[in-house]
């Protein structure tokens, strides 16, 4: 694993930042961000080794009655906007 940030998905919409922090208590967590009402979030760990350990231990486990998906987070996609403030979709 190259990065130290994990995507954590498929958990209940009611899960909070504090809940996710508790789930990762065995690991050196730097930051937790839950996207409210979406069932996913991101956990940044102290190193890529720590992230790999957490991924291996938690991916596919049951949490709040659902099977977690834990994977390396992808970098955010860049978004371009046209001069009117709307999405700029290029046509080919």
Provide a concise account of the structure shown.
By secondary structure, the protein is of the alpha+beta class. The chain has helices spanning 17-23, 48-58, and strands at 5-9, 29-35, 40-45, 62-63, 66-67, 69-72.
What features would you describe in this structure?
- With 92 residues, this protein is of the alpha+beta class.
- The protein has a domain at 19-72: RRM (RNA recognition motif) domain (Alpha-Beta Plaits).
- 20% of the residues lie in helices and 28% in strands.
- The protein contains two helices and six strands; from the N terminus they run βαββαβββ.
- It has a four-stranded antiparallel β-sheet, covered by helices on one side. A two-stranded antiparallel sheet has the order 4-5.
- The longest helix is centred in the middle third of the chain and has 11 residues, at 48-58.
- The model has no long low-confidence stretch (mean pLDDT 89).
Using brief descriptors, characterize the structure shown.
92 residues, alpha+beta, Alpha-Beta Plaits, four-stranded antiparallel sheet, 6 strands, globular
Layout of secondary structure:
Elements: E1 5-9, H1 17-23, E2 29-35, E3 40-45, H2 48-58, E4 62-63, E5 66-67, E6 69-72
Antiparallel strand pairs: 1-3, 1-6, 2-3, 4-5
- Beta-sheet strand percentage? 25-35%
User: What value does the average pLDDT take?
Assistant: 89
Structural class: alpha+beta
Number of helices: 2
Main β-sheet, spatial strand arrangement = 2-3-1-6
CA-atom Rg in angstroms: 16 Å
- CATH top level class name of the domain at 19-72: Alpha Beta
**Distance between the terminal alpha carbons, to the nearest Å?**
35 Å
Count of distinct strands: 6
CATH architecture of the domain at 19-72: 2-Layer Sandwich
CATH H-level superfamily title of the domain at 19-72: RRM (RNA recognition motif) domain
Topology as H/E string?
EHEEHEEE
Residues in helix, %? 10-25%
How would you describe the shape? globular
- Residue runs with pLDDT of under 50 for 5 or more positions: none
Q: Would you give the CATH topology of the domain at 19-72?
A: Alpha-Beta Plaits
Main β sheet profile:
4 strands, antiparallel
